[in-house]
Design a protein that fits this description.
single chain
């Protein structure tokens, strides 16, 4: 697999080569947000429908994964714009941690997306679309709006991350060789969920910009996720599994569907005194890290955690 061969150019730090044995334990900033370098390699024997052999669930999460590399680089640029203006030493250090974590997520998902492309899921189509779409938006949005959009999308990723950490049944049936990728990403999304928000409050602090951008971003997120799903499916060589589509829709938006369960956390964003850290999920992250340490046989990942 030549995972990087067709990667879209970017200016983020690229790991030079895959080194799955190594976890970088060195502190790169003076905050609690430390990037954990992973260098995942994916077993070619993994099925195309890696999520519970389910076409709908697999393509849905693949659509999300295809947006991550460029999406996360957009988050980094949006936050970096304000980096030098920050006066809080603590927040400056957290921003370094945020940038490092997102850079690694983008790189790992790029490799994962290339792996899925080799399995016949055309993730490159979505990656290119997102690359162009983000550049189109970046030309039109002010720095404050770009940061507000980042905060909104970070709220979505934190909700999804904590859903995975809190409800292991959500990822039930996922190929166990892929659970570490999603678990690692979930832990770090929850860990840095306040950083973009704190930069926004420090530098922009505008309720209307924050919430109107959330409303706009919600429509875009739902619409584009469906669109990316269709982009992937229409280029694939097999038939649509309508049974999986029907059960997948009720899995998401049925009476006990996962999206319905996220409603209170979503609506909380519109409160004037909202702050991501009000949902304290450290215990879930600690449990996630312990599980990750066990799955990857890397005890250093759980170092210093309460027993
Ligand atoms: Fe991320
Ligand atoms: Fe993030």
């Amino acid at each position: 697999m030549n995972a990087k061969a067709n990667a879209i150019p970017n200016n983020s730090d690229q790991p030079k080569k895959r080194n799955p044995k190594k976890v970088d334990a060195k502190k790169i900033n003076e905050s609690d947000i430390q990037p954990r370098r992973m260098d995942f390699e994916f077993d070619p024997a993994i099925n195309r429908y890696w999520f519970a052999d389910d076409q709908f669930k697999t393509i849905l999460l693949t659509a999300l994964s295809s947006t991550f590399p460029e999406g996360e680089r957009f988050f980094v640029r949006s936050v970096r714009h304000y980096q030098n203006a920050l006066t809080s030493k603590k927040l400056k250090e957290e921003v370094k941690g945020f940038i490092g974590q997102e850079a690694h997520h983008g790189n790992e998902h790029e490799v994962f997306n290339a792996f899925l492309r080799d399995k016949g899921i055309p993730t490159d189509i979505v990656e290119k679309f997102v690359y162009n779409g983000i550049r189109w938006q970046e030309k039109r949005l002010s720095p404050a709006r770009r940061l507000a959009k980042t905060c909104a999308l970070e709220h979505f990723t934190a909700m999804l991350a904590e859903l995975i950490l809190e409800n292991p049944e959500f990822i039930e049936g996922m190929d166990e060789r892929l659970v570490p990728l999603w678990m690692w990403h979930a832990v770090e999304e929850s860990e840095h969920k306040s950083v973009a928000f704190d930069v926004f409050q420090d530098q922009v602090d505008n309720y209307w910009v924050r919430t109107s951008e959330m409303a706009m971003t919600t429509v875009e997120f739902l619409g584009f996720t469906i669109f990316h799903y269709i982009q992937l499916r229409r280029e694939m060589d097999d038939k649509t599994d309508w049974k999986a589509v029907r059960s997948g829709i009720s899995w998401l938006i049925g009476r006990k569907g996962w999206l319905n369960q996220l409603r209170p956390a979503y609506l909380a964003y519109f409160k004037r005194d909202f702050h991501p850290a009000k949902r304290d999920k450290k215990h879930l992250r600690d449990a996630g890290l312990k599980q990750l340490a066990k799955m990857l046989n890397k005890p250093e990942l759980a170092q210093g955690l309460p027993h």
